[in-house]
Amino acid sequence: MIKLSDDLKKRFVNALTDGVAMVVGYVDRNGDPHVSPYGSLHASGDDRLALWVRNPDGDLIHGIARNANVAVFYAQLSSRTFVRMRGRARVANDAAERAQVFDGMHPFEQRGDPERKGVAIVIELDSAAGREADGTMFSMTR
Length: 142
Fold this sequence. Notes:
- The chain is an alpha+beta fold.
- It contains 5 helices and 8 strands.
């Protein structure tokens, strides 16, 4: 069972403010591996992440249509906190779910798409492993 701690959830949504990149790895539309930071990435549940992609024609959107498997990495070196996560990404088309993703992300990212023309992505986590700020090591699977 995967249950992200409240501390990690807080760190994820504040990553942009803290100067920490949350990086998503995926296979792009050409079939090539790709990594990209997303300031909008946040926990949307105990075992789920969400992010907002401003460009509806972006590589991530096309990539997950072909291969939903993604990897996410968070590392805050100052606190020695890191998390490696794997999961399956999907586009959220339901209006309520889109609103939840948009409302859950960092306010700076919200200001980047005030008309909400972007795409909401939900990642159902299959695994999460890493180190909490208090030094606790963890490894969880679905």
